[in-house]
User: Fold these one by one.
Assistant:
Number 1:
Amino acid sequence: MNIKQQQSQMLSAIFSLESLQENSAHKPSDFSATGLSIYQHSLLANASRALAITFATVHSFIGETGFSQLVKKYLQKHLKTQFDWGELGDNFPHFIHQQSLPNSEVLAAIATLDFACHHTERAENVEKDLTTLSLLNDVDAYQLKLNFAAGFKVIKLDYPADLIITDIHLKQLASDTEVINKVKHAMKNLPFNQVSLESVSGRLCMSPRTLRRHLQTLGVSFKTLLENERRNIATKRLDKKDISLDQLAELLGYNSTSSFSRAFKRWYT
Amino acid sequence: MFSLNKKAPNSLPLIGVGLRHTHFEDAINSPANIDFMEVHAENFFAKGGASHAVLTDISQHYKISLHATSLGLGSALPAPQKQLEQLSNLVARYQPILVSDHACFSWAESQGLDVHAGDLLPVPFNDESLNIMVSNVKRAQAQLGRQILVENLSAYIELPGSTYSEAEFLVKLCQQSGCKLLVDLNNLIVNAINQPLVTLMAKQSDSSANNNVLALAKQWLENIPSSLVGEIHLAGCTQVSAEQLMIDDHSQPVSDDVWSLYHFALEKFGPVATLIEWDEDLPSWPTLIAEADKARVIAKHVFTNNNLTTDEESTSDKIIEEGANSEY
């Protein structure tokens, strides 16, 4: 067997994704099966991750487990011919449509819109040339044409997928602001020297890692929120002029006046 | 032969970190004492959009290294021209200080289609495989107009047909294609740990305890001429029991074994650009930077002739302590 055949064989074995279930019962000597399953797990995990980014709404609709099962079936049926994970999934909407899932037609419509939005985001950036609008003053509008941006796309859907997606985003947004408010509230109710990712996440009944990730996806860090709270308190107390800088540093939970004065400079210069 | 000037303070290696999405904001807002940022080339294959806005910003603060994971330089089925063009556009756009990919295959035919594995799959170390990789590396270098670095893998399957050791194979690859190596020290450790399982020789090597792992990895490095090493990768991964294969998941701080191997590698290879890789369960930005600072302390130790002065020792402690404190 030459290398080309050997590589085809190995790649086909990985994409079969077949030995995945039996694996826990493998014979202890059969380590190449274990090796193969490592590559299979990695393929599935990477594909799920990539498709969850491209088809974010579909993913949030059916949840992690269901999504990953769907991706496994998809990979077995449609081999990955793209080298770029971001391009994976051109058949995913059609594939979803064929599945016997609840609301598979609606999900397929949402998937189509997800894919189109993803592509539009990745398309070449275009500078708008608004000065060309003045052409309308001199030239008959019917003799002018629009130059569309690279990501411009017209799609026709049988369901109002855009409304569904907007609705989901609004709900998401509401729950996001709620998390930030809860974090701020917890910070206010703890002495500053006890404020930590651990203590705050504990009050919110989630793990520190989950809270950090959650905040990261919202584009804020725990540190920034804490810094803002400290700054608010500092501004209030300094206005009242009832506290020395040393006392203020202690109140805000800084363990040295020098780190406090660094923060102070950051805020007020 | 090039000699090490251990006394010159300016002969310290460049030290960088792998930059992932989670840390984009931190990298711009809290600039760190980092010589370069390495990004995965494929994350910037889109023609436009948010990813390029971010990388443009980053490239104004730091030097960039492009680490590709998709060329599959060992594939008998050549990569499509479009893929090489996308990488070379990226190189032209960001002028990276280093460009690298892996000694693996990714492209192969399956069911009549050209399929990309999306992974770094191992190749056997023989002449047939070498010829394929040499020609793919030459093609990539011609397209990019520059030398590339090729990284050693962590492999979970050993393909039959090897006639060379991995180190011999990689040295020949450099000599015949003009590339250099990106030596991933954690991959050496992972392969050394997995070796008895992967090569089905568990019975014969029952006696080999873990202290041989470091010796095996050092032996590997002994076979590489220092003129061929262009970059070093450091990472950590999840520990496993003796029965399981260790997976190089880049989810942990750099392990003690890898630090000790790094010390050895710097002494042998000189001040080679060094990168901390962390891809899963990402830590806070300060913790990641603290890992880079540890590498810098080791490099100072190696290249300033003497042992750590008390002053440096306390600095390194402080860095580590501050890193820990800022981990909210």
Note: Chain B touches chain A through 58 residues (CB under 8 Å).
Number 2:
Amino acid sequence: MDGARAPIKIHLVVNGRPSDLEVAPHALLLDVLRDAMDLKGAKRSCDTQVCGACTVLVDEMAVSACTYLALEADGRAVLTVEGLAAGDSLHPLQQAFLDAGAVQCGFCTSGMLLTARAMLAETPAPSREDVLHYLRGSLCRCTGYRKIVEAIMAAVETAR
Amino acid sequence: MLRPFTLHRPETAEEACALLARLGDDAAPYAGGTELLLLMKLGLLRPPHLVDVKRIRELGALSDGGRLTIGATVTHRALERSALVRERCPLVASVARHVANVRVRNVGTVGGNLAFADPHSDLATLFLAFDARVELASPRGRRELSLDEFVRGPWETARRPDELLACVRLTPQPSRAAAYVKFGVHERPTLGIVVALGLNGDGPEAARIQDARIAVGCVGPRPARVAAAEARLREVAVNQVDDVVGAVGDAAAEGVDPADDMHGSADYKREMVAVFVRRALRVAAARARGVEPVSRFPYAVVA
């Protein structure tokens, strides 16, 4: 019943690639992704689960990697924005963001894309209201959201 | 950055309680971490031990045995999507759908939300109006407390250091029409109002209010029911609620204990309590009559 303070071995699949890691109990998923795995797509911004810039998917579920212990991802599949495209072909959401001009400074974009992907996995034909509800807590300080919502709705149309 | 800690992962409530009893104030129960890890990152909490309670099977269960039992580690998302909760207590599922944002809902738990006792919480206000009770487990056995007994003040509950919040229980009230309205411009709500109307059985238009519950959350140190406002609704016909909404709102505003903070001044909050009690009451009364009201208010969520 003694607890662990020393690093714990975890096995996870990151962007389709199986990885064995040793992480300290207090290691945050965001730091492991950015520093140990050199995946810089998820950003540290508010650090309080308010903004969505650090969003990654764990078993297709959106989480704030800034406030998520890395060891919670043990045995699970993690998707970051780096894993969204298939080789050289962009994910339909990425293409739709480009086409709609839904990217300005880009800092929120990886979180927006992954959040949208999680939503579409649950709700393949969302209404505009559904999109706005799901994006609550994903902050963009450039676009005013209109083009982001347009891009997601366009990706839904394309998928039909 | 988090400071190092020792992580414990008990499989049973008994093991968890034994750990909490042994470690005392050095340990914090950990589930979703959506509240706890934030304060640990800020250095405001520095527990050397975390007791992860997510492997305790009973804490993750949602079950219906007369009362609806919501295990402490049930996430907001699971509550939102549970067919059982939607059928038995639709407002609970609906409020869960609007807690914080989807990332918090995916990971954050009902028990964590209640045990943290942040005054700006949706669930505590809702559960207070619904007469929910929490069950605490400890090496000495189990005890049940009402929400009012459990939440003592800001970030303060009746949970003793060796106790584990096991579940919340509430009795579904199918004859009640209810609404939750919250308002705010920050991440956490500035205020949350529950109105639940217990009706006599005289059909949707002729029904009278027998038992009104009005709970106000977020403006005071803890959620509170406002008895004087509730009393104004006794024996009022649901199709005549419009005649008393002003008086009920005013009585609620007088009955709360708001504080100045970044959400606004005490006076402002008192005024908003009157406004939003009126709105929530109109929504609940419309639902009692079988009508879904048109209710779009700026910066507000209607559940």
Note: The longest strand of chain B covers residues 191-199.
Number 3:
Amino acid sequence: MNLDNVSVSVQLQDFDVSAEIQRLRNQSAQVGAVASFVGVVRDINDDQTISILELEHYPGMTEKSIAEIIVMAADRWQLIGVRVIHRVGKLLPTDQIVLVAVTSMHRGEAFAACEFIMDYLKTRAPFWKKEQTATGARWVDARSTDQTAADRWKQSD
Amino acid sequence: MVQILFFSLIREQLNTDKLSLSLPSPGITLQAFTEHLIDTHDAQWREVLTSANIIKAVNQRVVDDDCCLADGDEIAFFPPVTGG
């Protein structure tokens, strides 16, 4: 994959999925498949109503770790382009949090790489979520199911 | 000097987001340096910095306790990540 076709952003602002996908498609006429994932803020987590979700990150390491995950994906699948956007700061229910979009010649690579990048991002990129609920603020606990999802990719090596 | 960063719950529990310190000795391991931080702060630091699931990074890469430190390193302590 041409690294010029890889872009990672950590930002406060929202993003436009259609515009991002259009930009990826414009990178090459070889693109035959686009797979994308959008993570969204839910209004309920662990049976509590969420009013605000605040995302903290480790500037520098965050971008570096996502770039490394993309390189790992490009080693496993034939990809044309990858776009990752992760928002930080204060978000509200229904807001978009994260975009992973992948292009390839055929759908299999794009689907697999999109899921791989998302699974690894969840367990390796240094972001932390804090929820505001009716009873106060709490840091979200890491889920073992996220680690299990990332570990699946190791077993298939 | 080394720069030490604390994130998320760890930052709140220690009420500290960053510190700049001289290394007590060159080539000291991260484990010994963590002990040094604990010894030079109050009891809360021992509880927080020895918690089982704490993650440590040096120069923005997750490392083990036997990692050796050098002047100029950036050392970070944080809980398991929860992005995405």
Note: Chain B has three helices and five strands.
Number 4:
Amino acid sequence: MNPLLKVRDLRTTFTIGDSVARAVDGASFDLFPGETLGLVGESGCGKTVMALSILRLIEDPGEIVAGSVIEYEGANLLELSPRELRRIRGGEIAMIFQEPTTSLNPVLTVGAQIAETLRAHEEISREEARHRSVGLLDLVGIPDPDERASQYPHQLSGGMQQRVMIAMALSCEPKILIADEPTTALDVTIQAQILELLAALQRQLGMAMIFITHDLGVVAGIADRIAVMYGGQIIEEATTKSLFRRAAHPYTEALLQAAPRIDAKADRLSVIPGAVPPATAWPAGCRFHPRCPHAWEHCSGAVPDLLPLPPEHRARCWLVVEPHRRRA
Amino acid sequence: MSSLLVEIEHLVREFRTDGGLFGKRLTVRAVDGVSLAIGRGETLGLVGESGSGKTTLGRVILRLLEPTTGTVRFDGEDVFGLDRKALRALRRRMQIVFQDSSGSLNPRMTVGNAVREPLVVHGLARGSEADGRVAALFREVGLDPGYVTAYPHELSGGQRQRVGIARALSVEPEFIVLDEPVSALDVSVQAQVLNLLADLKERRGLTYLFIAHDLAVVRHLADRVAVMYLGKLVESAAAEALYAAPLHPYTTSLLSAAPAPDPAVARQRVVLLGDAPSPHAPPPGCVFHPRCPHPLKSDICRDELPVLHKGEGGRWVACHYAHEPLPVPGHGSTSVPAPGD
């Protein structure tokens, strides 16, 4: 199967004075039709900048470095004219964010906002747009959609607002939905509802999804494949099952062990020593080596590629080729 | 010396909204008749979602907010009956750590001074003695004392939270309210802070009220867990018992909604319908009944408020069908893969 989206050597930098933050630093991945790719990492790993880069939403002082490739339907999105890009953005690739309140216009009814999106991409009458927005509210499980369409964002709960955002994102039947921490601001019972909704809609509409989160628990339930980010790079990529069964990168392992589990009590949580270095000063060699319990001299010298672990797993770690170096 | 350090009885706290330009004034019962006790040296986990009243309850206990009715006793003393001077003496013994340390630390004060301030205010140490204590507190919470001259924005979120903890510890309290202390932190840092809190408790014999929306986080620290919904306590039990077999359907739903980092169990959930109702107009009967997934749910749930009653093993639950609890899906079949498996 051909990938729907091909990202190759994506680099996005932010330059402030003399310092250059390499927020995304050579990320490559494929997204296949109909699949959900989980993009996981902690603050500052580059996951959100990567999503914004795909839609070319990076503003000054940020810059996508020449040579990066984001290929969708045979075209490099980074080379499209603003007009061509507008057709892709929202039409072919849509995005939802963590905070629906900041993305919704507070002085327009939610129905009008969805209708506006529809009319921006298609030539349809007001009446038709209004009719379709009610249909979309119904699709995302909002009760009494007709009535809700004439309400303002503040009259809706956080969960309902996120449903409206999803309705708006789906209005032009995108082939790809990028969801950036869409449930992080929600209560856990509401989060469960939104996750079920996204999974159901994805199956129903056959779209591909990039689901960005810091929460390994969330991604375990929704993703087909997972890419773990650290220091602006993808450091491990695998099917969800394979990642949770045999995490190969010491960072992924450490993250899994550090997460408190609801289904088992540990007397002590394992911790990752130290902190994530700033994007202006990534360490030489493997970016994780100063915090890695297995690191040896080689790790501070050269960064490995994503090394294959057949059948469906890759990790950016020298342990893949020298497993005997792993410390007990 | 009583074995109970904090005793909360029938606590009610209401807020009045001004109702806006044309709106009606509304009264919200953020905390609605809560009774709880915390034993000396115990960690009580207080869990609930937004609007459950857990944060308000924590603040009323410390008398950072006045109650509408009800009592709180701390080591036998009536917290709301104290005059200013006595309250100040009591404040030394009970402290709070907030979720957002960047909001609770003064941005213009060095973090060293933030930890030093309570020492001076309470007349515990001055001058070089205070400096020495601040350095010792920094070391105790795992911060390099070299950071005393730093400002909050120069520190990471995890380091700021350590400062918040050092500040609370400075007056040598017996009881600390931890209000979502790790919610704003990344997973790897969260684990560090949770371990630190466990160590401090052990070393100093502290008593904690650990407030969180995350049942997984609470599990690692709490001896006992209390669950709130819309201002009411719906269940409390020893932590192990509660996680193994919750009795209230809301607790069951919360447990099953918490995402587990294991694809084998992650797809089984009890998904609640709808949103939590507005606290302005709580539903009649059991406040949880409109969203309750319990198959036995009946008219009694809509008509009659279930009282909190005592079950076996010191458990408390407020549900008409607590004798036939809803099972947690996927529970008991969880496999934790061994590393390298």
Note: Chain B has twelve helices and twelve strands.
